[in-house]
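Side project, low priority. Logging it here so it doesn't get lost.
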Amino acid sequence: MSNHVYKQLELVGSSNVSIEEAVSSAIAKAHETIRNIQWFTVTETRGQVVDGKVAHWQVALKVGFTLE
């Protein structure tokens, strides 16, 4: 295994469907401009409640990618 240097950045994804979709959309959008994304960590999950039901998810995450 070779040695790597990683950079971290923080993202917030949102979805009205699920936590997983919020994470996936954030990573997919970051992938459009950032190469070598290797991992992520969910740091916070929050949501909006409307009429007693979950209406929207917001997920904060840290994403790590290798530097070239």
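Brief comment: The helical segments are 19-31.
Revisit when time allows.
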